[in-house]
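Please, structure for the following, as tokens.
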Amino acid sequence: MTTITWNHLCYFCNRMITRGKPTILFATDKALLLGLSHTTCAAAKYDLFRYQMNPPARLSPEQTAFLIQFYPMLYSIPGGFTPTAALRRCLAELLHNYPMSMDNANKWLHQFKNLNKDKPQIYEGNLEADYIQYLEKVQKAAKENPVDVEFDFP
């Protein structure tokens, strides 16, 4: 198993990452882990998804596989002001506290719904059912495509 930790080379500048909040880089168009970066090096790279670690933190291989599958599926959901954008925004909220948010994923759905009660989300379909289906699809894809990489920043 590959463990990525401090002193790993930055994907962009090739200097060692020795402090701060390391940023894991994922592709948004296909299920692919790109590497690790300094926060400042990744700041202007909008074609990649950036997941920022907050040491001390650890992502197991299963959690890493989940994120690898999560991002391209998330970016395939319409965003902006389309009627189905609420699903994308709701799923993005889940990432703010990942991996702890997966302990009770429905909690984040209900928080999202309650966040703007005065501005109801226009959504074509059943937001709760689509949210659960999305997470199931990601989980299934992560199990079918395991990775042997963990991130550990003690």
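The chain has two domains: 1-58, 60-145. Helices lie at 39-42, 61-75, 85-95, 105-115, 127-144.
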